Amino acid sequence: MVILAIETSCDETAVAVMRDGRETLSSELFSQADMHALYGGVVPEIASRNHAAIIGRLAEMAIKNAGVAKSDIDAVAVTYAPGLIGALLVGVNFAKGLALALGAPLVPVHHIRGHIAANYIAYPELSPPFICMVVSGGNSLVADVRGFTDIRIIGRSRDDAAGECFDKAARSLGLGYPGGPALDKLGQGGDDSRFALPRPSIEGFPYDMSFSGLKTAVVNIVHNAEQRGEELDKASLAASFAAAVSDILVLRAMAAAEEYGRDKIVIAGGVAANSRVRADFLKAAETQGRALFIPPLKLCGDNAAMIGCQGYFEYLAGVRAGADLNAYATMDADAVYW
Description:
Layout: E1 2-7, E2 12-19, E3 23-31, H1 33-37, H2 44-66, E4 75-81, H3 85-102, E5 106-110, H4 111-122, E6 130-135, E7 140-145, E8 151-156, H5 162-172, H6 179-187, H7 212-228, H8 234-260, E9 264-268, H9 275-288, E10 291-293, H10 305-316
Parallel strand pairs: 1-4, 4-5, 6-9, 9-10
Antiparallel strand pairs: 1-2, 2-3, 6-7, 7-8
Helix pairs in contact: 2-3, 4-10, 5-6, 5-7, 5-8, 6-8, 8-9
């Protein structure tokens, strides 16, 4: 089965052609990071306009590079939630028109489910059940993945997502946007015990997270050093910050795996590209004797291959959408589209 998939939830336009969910025939991506770096973060209007300008050409490129004809496409999958509403609407409306023109069914895909599915592409042997820690730019949550389309959220961030926290901490250190990769590089030479940073927990909700206090602590350390005219050990602050985020994530994922009896742990989303997070999860999984699955770097960030993969499983489950499909800025990953 051949699925053309579209992802436009934030500032990257992506189109992929997938066969039977896990085989990537082509995966094209146009990143707007350089444009938004001028403003220190994503500007929704700019993102939407650029999606509209590039998506048609990118779809043509994806089909050509996949070596298939348009008549070979069996379904069109598209991210419909969550994300920047204007950006999502570009992808959703383009997918509607394409599905209508091809006479193919339209399959709506939740962005977070797509991030989880990125691991199915990287690991053909992987199948549910497992615990997944999803740490993308705008979402941080713990999911009990019981089946390919049966997902239950058991924990989430109460405020900032880990990815947002990385970007804001990086901005306070003068690293610009996107902040995650730059912060990771800076912290390589630092002392991760140099700064005592908070690792909040929420009483009665063991898998929920909070990152706003950690972000504020970093910002305050930077501002206090500036006000006093003191030289700040930025490398150690970056390393201490990454260690704190990693501790918050690892603790919850491992505890959830223990409680729910899962012998597999999966990491998904852009923050999964952080070297400290990857190393700490590997160590913890080895200690507990659990299998760990982390996608390669190219599948950590937003891409359309992951949407095509999850779209395949949603299609098998009977999920379809019509011309009335709408986009949603927020929606839980365990919500069911009817």
